Amino acid sequence: xxxxxxxxxxxxxxxxxxxxPFGALAYHFGxxxxxxxxxxxxxxxxxxxxxxxxxxxxxVAAGIPxxxxxxxxxALEGLAASDMLRRREGEVAA
Length: 94
Prior knowledge:
CATH class: Alpha Beta
Helix content: 25-40%
CATH topology: Outer Surface Protein A, domain 3
InterPro entries: MftB
Structural class: alpha+beta
Organism: Nocardioides mangrovi
Pfam families: MftB_chaperone
Number of helices: 3
Number of domains: 1
Strand order of the largest sheet: 2-3-4
Protein name: Mycofactocin biosynthesis chaperone MftB
């Protein structure tokens, strides 16, 4: 599953994030997967997806330098593949 900068994504409603010193634990109550988010910056991006107009906006709001975006997109794709993130359908980028 690919995540594009101009798409709308959000944390799945079945997922809870628990803050930890290293970042957060993401637990999916439906498929019972547990994923470690090992960077506080990634946690900021994931939390910001819901209110951001698109992935690019969430990265900017979290203060991620553009040079780092490819690695964050890869991380978001991994979360999407585990159903931790879901595409917000029916929304158009501003």
